[in-house]
Every structure is written in C-alpha cells, then in structure tokens.
Amino acid sequence: MSIDGNPQVLIIGSGVIATELAAAYAQLGFESVIGPLASAASLKPRLIVTATDDFDLEELRHAAEATGAETVPTIEASELTANRQRTRASANDDLGLPTLEHEFVTDPAQLAEAAERIGFPCVVKPGRSTDGTGQSVVREPGELDAAYRAALEASPGEGVVVERYIQFDSEVTILAVRSVDPATGELATWFCEPIGTRHERGRLVQSFQPAQLTEAAMDNARSIAARVTGAMNSCGVHSVELFIDGEEVYFSQATPRPTLDGMVTRATQRLDQFELHARASLRLPIDATLISPGASQLVPTEGRAVTTECLARAMAVEETGVQVLASALLMRSTGETAEEAQERAARAAAAL
Question: Is the pTM of this model over 0.70?
C-alpha cells in the first residue's frame, strides 16, 4: 500500500540521516529514493527532502519549480541556515537573540585582528555549518594560522567565524517541531525534552536526554527555539543548538532537519526525530513524548575493523544497542535516569 497521489520522496544526501529519513517516509507509505538533485527531473517527486546542507540552492530551486515538488525544509529555511554569517545576522539583527561576540573574516590578517578584539581564548569555526569538522579553540596568536586552514578546509569559500570562548555550563540542543495542530488547524510548535551534548575538538561525542535545566533557562531556551523556527517558516524538525551559562542562554546555530545530536531520540521518544520530521513535513499530528531517559555515544572507527565480537561486548551492557555508521559506532542506552544511561553508553564504548 502506498500514499494517495504522488507517492515518491527524493532524499538529497547520504549517510545515516538520509537513510533514516527514507525509512521514516516509507513507514508512511511513500516510495523513498536517495539520490542527487539531478534525478528530480525524471522522478517528479512529491517532496524533495534535503538531509544535508551540501547542495546548490539554485539547483534545488530550479528542481522544485520544474517538478512542482515541495522542498523540506523550505528553500528559505535552507538559505537562512546554510551559512553561519547569514544565520547569526538574522539571529542578532532580526530576532534580537543573545549570541556570543563573534566576527566573520575572509583572510588570515582579518582573523588576527578579530581575535585581538575578541580576546583569547577564542573559537575559530568554518563559515558553513558542519558536523564540528574544522572547529578549533585558539589560546594564543601562534595557533591562528592552523585554525584558519582547518576551518577553510572544512568549508571552502564560506569564510571563517571567530567567536568569544566562554566556559559555559553545558551545551543543549532543542528539537522544535513545526506542524499543524489538529485541534486548531493552525501551525504550532512542539518541543522535545532538551538534549544535552558534549563535544571534543568540535565533534559530537555524547548526547543525553533529558538535560537538566533550571526553569528560567528552560523558558529562555524554548523561547529562542520558538523565535528561530518561527522565522524559518518551515514545517519539520529544527535542531537549535544553545550554550547554557547559569540562567543565561546563548544561540549558537540552527539546522532545519534531524542531526546527529538527535540520534538519541531513537531510544528515548515515542517518535524519534526522523519520524517527527516526516510527519511534520506532511502536516500530520505530532507526539513529542519522552518515554525513557537515554544517552548515545559516538566511537570513531577510522582505521579499525568492526567485528561481531566487539559488537557483542558493547551490546552486553544492559539496555544498550549499537548502530554502525559510516565512520563511527553509535552506542545508545536507556536507564532510570539520563546519568545512568550515560554511564551505560560509556561502558559500552569502553567495551569496544
């Protein structure tokens, strides 16, 4: 059985985000095809779903106009979030959101001047949002050149951002889901419980849900997420990354689709981030209920073999599963508390 009308969905991207989205749409009766934008002309899909921001916006616009397909997220949301400079400018100038002091630069000399103004230590990031690749904490001027090269290599032609470094209490991702409320027929926003994250050298290492926030910090976090998603005017899951410093909350970036941060929802929620994204893009009812505290931990696998024996050791940890990704293993554990789930995921990672 397939959905009424045009049943095809074209997923742009690769890796776990694309495959999980394809499965989520298939569960709703769609024929999911993972492929390049060029295939839209022959497929004439009902939806073009971008699972990455590594695509040409003009090509996406042309494909949508030529086929009549709806894009998920909208082209406007993709334009707003693909580039850090555009995202931060909108957050500061249009929405008045609190962000860390930052500047955008296009050459090493500008970077040195901006770093002196902002002060050391500082953070140097690629101009385009990435999975953490190319991000560096710079503690002295002699480290700037290497940080600039790393950022530019991760995102060529997009410039570099230098940002004030703070010893924040925690990093939190809010998954905000935009869809139609069946009770009112109007667009509404649902919030998943906050996801705590931990990064090393800019790369995600661990996620856990729910993250414990004070009432004031929670209100601030959800207020920021609501304003950001409202500005995007796009249905689906929006991953809004924030820094928490006491009751102060700073906007970092937003991604209008599922991310690695939200992989923990496969274990914690009645509907995971991929199911929520598929439902919301079709304006279907949303259920963001948390059913169990949980945690996930990423273990890189570059240069090492993954054997059934090592999988067995990790899976022997109670309430733990393992998912094999392209270049990492993802431990996913549940527990009575998020702390217990974190401990189990860490034990599973160590068992490898």
Answer: yes
